[in-house]
Amino acid sequence: MGNNGQTGQQAFKRTILHDVYRSNLSAEKLLSLQQRGQRRQRMGRWVRVAGLVVILPLMGSGAHSVFPGGADSLPPGKSAAVEIAAAGWNSGLPPLIDDANAGVTSSQEMPVSTPMAPHRRAFLSGRGAVAPLDGSDGPDEWTVPDGGISSASDYRVLLDRPAVALADLFGLEVRTIVIDPGHGGEDPGAIGPSGMLEKDITLEIARLLYERLVRREGLRVFMTRDSDVTLSLKHRVEFARENSSDLLISIHLNTIPNDPMTIVETYYFGPPADEHSLKAAEQENRRSDYMVAEFGELIAGLSDTLKQQESRRLAAHIQRNVYRTLHRSNRNIVNVGIKTAPFVVLLGAETTSVLAEVTCISNTEEEARLAKPAYRDKIAGALERGILSYLKQSGRQQGRPPRQWSTTYGKS
Amino acid sequence: MAKVKVSQQDKALRIGIDLGTSRSAIAASNGKRDWVQSLVGWPKDFVARKMLGDRVLFGDEVNEHRLSLDVVRPLAQGVIKSGTEKDEESVAELIGHLIDLVGPRPRQKIFAAVGVPAEALKVNKQAIREAISDYAEKLIVVSEPFAVAYGMGALDNAMIIDMGAGTTDFCIMHGTMPSVDDQRSLTTAGDYIDEQLLGLLTERYPDADFNMNIIRAFKEEYGFVGDSLTQVEVEVRVEGRLVVHDITNEMRRACESILPAIAETAMDMIARFDPEYQDQVRNNIILAGGCSQIAGIDSYLMEALSEMGPCNVTVVDDPLYAGARGGLELAKDMPYEYWMDM
Ligand SMILES: Nc1ncnc2c1ncn2[C@@H]1O[C@H](COP(=O)(O)OP(=O)(O)OP(=O)(O)O)[C@@H](O)[C@H]1O
Ligand SMILES: [Mg+2]
Ligand SMILES: [Zn+2]
User: Greater confidence, B32 or A68?
Assistant: First the structure.
């Protein structure tokens, strides 16, 4: 190829690389306005928010379809108008409602008017604020182009990576998260080969996780302890209960005596999966403070399978994220997966709860890594991602977002 | 976020990943590359975990232990599987496994260009982003045939036909990134051939024990179209005894069965192209994907398309890695500020 050909090829490359950038960008930032025209027919819902018109394509049927997964099954021409009147909202936080799917199917067919919170943070008493559950940055970054969002994939983007709070858009309730740094005070927890104490590291990781989560809107975050104090498991459980926590994460470090292995495991409540889980539970249950009778009652109240299912899912999200993150620093780390064990702190909590043994303090190299703030922050980041992806998915799967539509639809 | 310093960018590992319905491949800037069947399996129960360990299995290992595993094909039907937790995890696991295969240094940053079936690009961008978020710092996602085109340097007036397992994907390049109109997809590809071949062979040899895996292996070993140079004879069990069967005609018919639709689609796409450049496109048709290795397929298509005028059809040299290599080229060429943060 001659010189001309070469330069021509370079020019094509530049154009194409820019195209690639744009095509990835538009999915990312809702900027695919140019291609709007031809896709208009496929649109569904109109949602008016603060004077901006957002077009949301209507998907299949049922509450689930309002979220990604069915956008392209949108029947052409099927549409409904939804007007969200910010002014209609004036009460406090709505209660958690589980039968979120009720009525949604019909609401898709007709224009509905939905009250929603203009800004949830106004109602918050705790530390925290309302924000997207997906790890994106915050409202400032996100603007609805005033021409509207125009296609199924754009809508998907709105739901998947909104920097505008989903909570604001759809009336998602604020979630309360309790972070429980394991051990503390007189109880050092496990001790590393060179003397590192589990209680110190769990507290550090918990603080970092707290810092990360409070920045997100839509979350109220508490810590069971923020200093080196002795707390019984009973106290921790009650703390979570008193603060009506939606989600409890207890942070621990594992120890495997006489074995240099490093493992990551996440527990939710249930019968011990094996000898190791039983040992782990015994170890972590030592300072439970529960009387035998109370313990019996707690176990009797265990019929809550929904809680268990939710806890299992949360455990999976956390396990996956922690393992992947640590695996990048330590290729020998072993993914033990999620497990059940009778941890008191998990049993007593009335909510979705997990106990994460994020790594092994008994391994010399891992102990050295844990001494570094950056490594602890890495773990906190992984826990955060696990929690957020769980919350996001549970919002999706339980069809929470459209709840407001279904319970209050009618003419405005 | 502060911009990463240049030195850090240079240390980043660039990777191209081709996520296919049947096979997925990776090529990395450290010179390593690998591929695996797109299969992910989890030990089903306690016994399976005892035997295999509590871990995720991939590719051939999944086939080997199929009965003990919950198996997911993360890209079945050309889109990212979703529904159950395992479905959703499977793509991420597969990507993580591919990255392990090229061995990044601990803590090395990864910039990934991922090619996916055209359909997945439409509906699954976010799922892909999530799946790779734990491994890569930066990501771009493109359609598979486009990645192939880019890797071949076929940027202008060219047509790529990517003949895979589930789909045959077409893409016309004209100096820009192909738009929706420049791409098409047919469901006549490798799997379709397998079904045809199985049908034809069971009809002719009702007593022989054929199954899909054997059939696919025959096709990959002996697949051809047009005139055959030799007889295709294979040994198959009949009532427990190995018996030699001649499958020459069945093989040809099955392999040719996908070609009329492919030729027709190619002609139609070219006919819609700017008339001034149709000649050039016709002379720059590139076949990629596993099925492009079927013997004689290029000349067969060349002949079929020549009714529009002279044309030239070539097969990529390295069908297994064409997509991953294209992704890697893209990852290397992409200016820093064009990358998307995870
Ligand atoms: N040597 C060969 N000869 C003929 N066919 C082959 C050969 N090698 C692989 N194939 C077939 O190619 C198909 C797989 O091709 P490829 O790996 O390009 O698919 P994929 O990218 O996973 O699928 P898709 O493009 O549909 O997502 C299978 O049907 C396989 O049997
Ligand atoms: Mg392919
Ligand atoms: Zn502990």
Answer: B32
Residues forming beta bridges with residue B340, ordered by sequence position: B139
Task: Give the chain A residue nearest B123 (alpha carbons).
Answer: A153
Ligand nearest to the CA of B192: 1
User: Which residue range(s) make up the domain with B18?
Assistant: 8-150+321-341
> Would you say the pTM of this structure is higher than 0.80?
no
Does residue B146 sit in the same domain as residue B194? no
What's the total number of domains in chain A?
2
Q: Categorize the per-residue pLDDT at B96 as very low, low, confident or very high, splitting at 50, 70 and 90.
A: very high
**CA-based nearest distance A398→chain B, Å:** 13
Same domain, A311 and A222: yes
Confidence of residue B34 (pLDDT cuts 50, 70, 90): very high
3-state secondary structure of B31: coil
* A399, burial (CB in 10 Å: exposed 0-12, middle 13-18, buried 19+): buried
Instruction: Note whether B156 contacts A: Cβ–Cβ < 8 A.
Output: yes
CB contacts of A132 in chain B (<8 Å) are none
Q: Both A218 and A122 in a single domain?
A: no
Model pLDDT, residue A376? 94
Residues of chain B found within 8 Å of residue A23, distances taken between Cβ atoms: 142, 177
Most confident among A159-168, A310-319, B292-301 (mean pLDDT): B292-301
Contact B144, B290 (CB under 8 A): no
Handedness of CA B72, A357, B132, A312 (dihedral sign): positive
pLDDT computed for residue A245 by the predictor: 87
| Residue A16 is assigned to a structural domain of this protein | no
Q: Is the pLDDT of residue B218 over 50?
A: yes
| Domain extent at residue A320 | 172-393
Q: What does the DSSP assignment read for B256-298? A: HTTHHHHHHHHHHHHHTS-HHHHHHHHT-EEEESGGGGSBTHH
The answer to whether position A401 is within a domain reads no
Query: Residue B264: inside a domain, yes or no?
Result: no
CATH code, B251: 3.30.420.40
Q: Residue A256's CB: how many other CB atoms inside 10 A?
A: 16
Distance CA A170, CA B135 (A): 32
Residue B16 included in any domain:
yes
Rounded Cα distance between B114 and A358, Å, is 30
DSSP readout, A170-237? H-PPPEEEEEEE--BTTB--SB-TT--BHHHHHHHHHHHHHHHHHTSBEEEEEES-SSS----HHHHH
In a domain, B313, yes or no: no
Same domain, A389 and A299: yes
The gap from C-alpha A142 to its chain's centroid, in whole angstroms, comes to 20
Please determine, for residue B250, whether its predicted confidence score (pLDDT) is greater than 50. yes
A172 vs A388: which has the higher pLDDT: A388
Residue A232's pLDDT band (cuts 50, 70, 90)? confident
Per DSSP, helices labelled H in B190-338 are: 190-204, 212-222, 248-256, 259-271, 275-282, 297-305, 322-333
ipTM of the modeled complex: 0.84
Q: How many CB atoms lie within 10 A of CB A163?
A: 17
Which of helix, strand or coil describes residue B168?
strand
Task: Assign A5 a pLDDT band (cuts: 50, 70, 90).
Answer: low
Which ligand 1 atom sits closest to the C-alpha of B194? 29
Measured CA to CA, the distance from residue B76 to residue A178 in angstroms comes to 39
Distance CA A133, CA A317 (A): 14
